[in-house]
Amino acid sequence: MLVVKGDNSVNSNKHALVVEGGAMRGIFATGVLDTFLTAQYQPFKQCFGVSAGATNIAAYLCGQHKRNHAVITDYSCRPEFINLTRFIRGGHLFDLDWLWQITIADMRLDLAAFAKQQSEFFIVATDIATATAQYLKATPELMEQQLKASCAIPIAYRNYPEIDGIAMTDGGVADSIPVRKAFAMGAEEITVVLSQPLGYRKKPSKAPWLTEKLYKAHPALARASIARADNYNASIDFIHNPPAGCKINIIAPPANFKVGRTTKNYKKLSAGYAMGITAAAQYLQNIQP
């Protein structure tokens, strides 16, 4: 599904790509960006990704078609990665240590190709001490660890990866859809790939007291988690009502997108990937002169 918002007269080279996260829901964006790769479509001067959205952008900029399809539909579905029993016993629900180790060994990102491409890539993570969004500029040397920090969902992954000595966690806590940051950095056209259908708005936490208890060692992170719905919905409002001089292209899953954060059903994941391919094809058709 493609929707265009804002000033359609905008025509500049200040075009940014923003991709939302969402764990296994990232399969939709995988289909979108794989289609862009096949079409050799890469007009973006800057890219901003959060969690699974960041890993999708990384594969796109490295030119690795279907890499993340394999990561999501195979590696991420193995019990070594998502394991509820292990989590109940005090371990990780999402074992990023295992996932990073095996995918680096089996199908590492093409860091040499990334070094040659021209787009600036900002990976969003959250500083656990201040709960502020950190827009980490990716480099071939640091990108893998930066991606891990962005994907480190609090509680579900019990460690906090460090970048330059700063402990980080899931970028979605501080900025789930960094469209406002892209605009603040000069983007005049933003193509945003969402992982929820149009009309979705995040609901406020039903138990803020529980969040405060879970994050008692990190009070700023607790406050940011409680405010996450407001922050998310403010980004949605920006997307649907962009300021003058900003054009926003929305690529979102259709209403029948059935993939959730922990979905491991191959049929549902494959359908979600196909939906991404269809949405990207529509986008590319609509931008043809």
What does this structure look like?
With 289 residues, this protein is α/β, with parallel strands linked by helices. The chain has one domain: Cytosolic phospholipase A2 catalytic domain (3-Layer(aba) Sandwich), CATH 3.40.1090. It has helices at residues 27-38, 52-61, 67-73, 84-88, 96-107, 111-116, 143-151, 179-184, 208-214, 219-226, 228-240, 266-286, and strands at residues 2-6, 15-19, 46-50, 120-127, 133-137, 162-163, 166-170, 189-193, 247-251. Strand 6 (162-163) and strand 7 (166-170) form a beta hairpin. This is Patatin family protein.
The general outline is globular
CATH level-four homologous superfamily name: Cytosolic phospholipase A2 catalytic domain
Total domain count: 1
CATH architecture tag: 3-Layer(aba) Sandwich
What's the helix-strand series? EEHEHHHHHEEHEEHEHHHEH
CATH topology: Cytosolic phospholipase A2 catalytic domain
Task: Point out poorly predicted stretches.
Answer: none
- The rounded distance between the terminal residues' Cα atoms is 19 Å
Question: What's the overall average pLDDT, rounded?
Answer: 93
Beta strands, count: 9
Largest sheet: 9 strands, mixed
Q: Could you tell me the strand content as a percent range?
A: 15-25%
Q: How many helix segments?
A: 12
Radius of gyration: 18 Å
Task: Supply the key terms.
289 residues, alpha/beta, 9-stranded mixed beta sheet, 9 strands
